[in-house]
Design a protein that fits this description.
By secondary structure, this protein is α/β, with parallel strands linked by helices. The protein has 12 helices and 8 strands. Helices cover 41% and strands 15% of the residues. The two termini are 14 Å apart. Bound molecules: 1,3-dihydroxyacetonephosphate (13P).
Length: 248
């Protein structure tokens, strides 16, 4: 049985003070068997971790650098995240691909670095609207997964989580239907199986992200190949409690 994961991606929201308050306020309300994760801005990692330390909530970052140290102004390394007691890190989010030159190749390097340091990367893939309209969604997902996991062994691959996030559904209120999300997640699982075998494919956790709400979470998370969600906007509201608690 794959344990479900519900991760909030706070993006560039909350200061350390408001973030800690918000996290402390919702943490006692979760009633779920899911693994709950808050992926917060770097500056909030420590405060939010402290704020929820009495609860089974994992803290994650939203990016890392693939080098250990050096002249990379403004960047943050895996060791720096670990020192803040982060356990997870989002890699290859579409906003980083769109605005900060993240590529499948940098995703591959970051995935390897994260796992080698003991962080769990949440590796994002997903198509843009034009790609869906051209009917190349599955080709694109296969390519994104294959490059992200290039020269990655099965043990390393299974230490990751994948998030399928169609770009057209992010922050738009246009959620993929459960069937669309299921089909894409099944495709991701299939390509993972081609790379690592059916047993590994049955173990890898694949999340859906893109306008998940309290109202649609259960229908999405009940699909056979969807193992939870990566939640943006709604993770900043108390609605996140309903999304987490949609996993009984
Ligand atoms: P929204 O839930 O705001 O659509 O964002 C999804 C997302 O990008 C999570 O990483």
């Amino acid at each position: 049985m794959r344990r479900k994961v519900v991760a909030g991606n706070w993006k560039m929201n909350h200061t350390s003070a408001t973030g800690a308050d918000f996290a402390a306020g919702i943490a006692p309300k979760f009633q779920t068997s899911a693994e709950v994760v808050f992926c917060v801005p770097y500056t909030n990692l420590w405060c939010v971790k402290e704020a929820v330390k009495d609860y089974p909530i994992g803290i994650g970052a939203q990016n890392l650098h693939y080098e250990d140290s050096g002249a990379f102004t403004g960047e943050v390394s895996a060791d720096m995240l670990l020192k803040m007691e982060a356990k997870y890190v989002i890699v290859g989010h579409s906003e980083r691909r769109a605005y900060y030159n993240e590529t499948d190749e940098t995703v591959n390097k970051k995935l390897k670095k994260a796992v080698s340091k003991g962080l769990t990367p949440i590796v994002c893939v997903g198509e843009q609207l034009t790609q869906r309209e051209q009917g190349i969604t599955e080709d694109l997902l296969r390519m994104q997964v294959r490059i992200a996991y290039m020269d990655v062994d099965a043990e390393t691959a299974l230490a990751t989580i994948i998030a399928y996030e169609p770009v057209w559904a992010i922050g738009t209120g246009k959620t993929a239907t459960p069937d669309q999300a299921q089909q894409a997640c099944a495709c991701v699982r299939e390509v993972f199986g081609v790379l690592y075998g059916t047993d590994a494919a049955s173990k890898i956790r694949i999340l859906y992200g893109g306008s998940v709400t309290g109202a649609n979470a259960k229908d999405l998370f009940d699909m056979p190949d969807i193992d939870g969600g990566l939640v943006g906007g709604a993770s900043l509201k108390t609605e996140f409690v309903d999304i987490v608690n949609a996993v009984k």
